[in-house]
Design brief:
Blueprint lengths: L2 E2 L3 H10 L5 E7 L3 E2 L5 E9 L5 E4 L8 E9 L4 E4 L16 E4 L4 E8 L6 E4 L8 E3 L3 E10 L4 E2 L5 E2 L2 E4 L8 E4 L12 H7 L26 H9 L9
Parallel strand pairs: 3-16, 5-14
Antiparallel strand pairs: 1-13, 2-4, 4-9, 5-8, 6-7, 6-12, 7-10, 10-11, 12-15, 12-16
Length: about 240
């Protein structure tokens, strides 16, 4: 496959004439609630809003010149994060060897996952103090950003290369993800079934056979009465569990 890369001067010209308004980016999720131990499916939709066919690096292939990142913000505007995901592209690499052409009004969808390790969502109570790291039990706004830093012309593609940055926030309000740590079985409600999941795990530590982080609600490497109490406090008033 032959790759043609533009000169720095040509790149500057392309960049000057390519605007983020040429594309729109939106974020969708496979669920609006999570207990924090299950991965969250993310669907990103990139739409060509220009009058021209646009060429993008293949975002599901090797594309060192395109970066796709996710942003999580708490309701107070402070950032949140997960330990790992399949959202972030590699930060460096060779120029892309594959490209995709998007016709006017055409969309492509990209499927990613948040919280692939099941370790939950985290935030700092004080951004300047690493000791204030805490497990998040709140709602977060989910946004995405796509940046293409240079032109990739692959033999056989037709269209105008897109260079620039597009943000999902520019297309509308960011969707909300509600994190309910006490929802142990991730069924979007807190009830006796969550306690039933915890009971056989009680007393187990990270090093114990049969330990499951799904029961370690406060992430202190053990399932104990504190985890039971966290869920019990969130049960609907009047609920009695066996």
């Amino acid at each position: 496959m032959i790759i043609k890369s533009v000169s720095i001067l040509s790149l500057a010209i392309f960049a000057a004439h390519t605007q983020a308004a040429d594309l729109s980016l939106s974020v969708g999720m496979d669920k609006g609630n999570t207990g924090g131990t299950a991965p969250i499916g993310i669907v990103l939709t990139v739409t060509n809003t220009s009058k021209d066919a646009l060429v993008l690096p293949n975002l599901d292939g090797p594309a060192g010149d395109a970066y796709l990142t996710i942003g999580l913000k708490q309701t107070n505007g402070d950032p949140a994060f997960v330990i790992d995901s399949t959202i972030d592209s590699t930060a460096a690499g060779a120029i892309a060897i594959e490209a995709v052409t998007i016709q006017p009004s055409e969309s492509i969808t990209l499927k990613r996952q948040l919280n692939t390790s099941g370790l939950g969502f985290w935030a700092f109570a004080d951004a300047n103090d690493a000791r204030t790291l805490r497990l998040l039990d709140d709602s977060v706004r989910v946004s995405a950003t796509l940046t293409v830093t240079r032109d990739t012309l692959v033999t056989g593609t037709r269209g105008r290369p897109f260079i620039g940055t597009v943000r999902s926030d520019d297309s509308g309000p960011a969707p909300m993800l509600k994190i309910i740590v006490e929802d142990v079985n991730n069924d979007s409600q807190i009830d006796c079934r969550d306690l039933e999941v915890l009971k056989p795990l009680l007393g187990k530590r990270c090093s114990s056979p049969g330990f499951d982080r799904i029961g370690d609600l406060n992430r202190d490497c053990s399932v104990d009465i504190k985890d039971i109490a966290m869920t019990a406090r969130k049960l609907p008033t009047g609920t009695r569990c066996q």
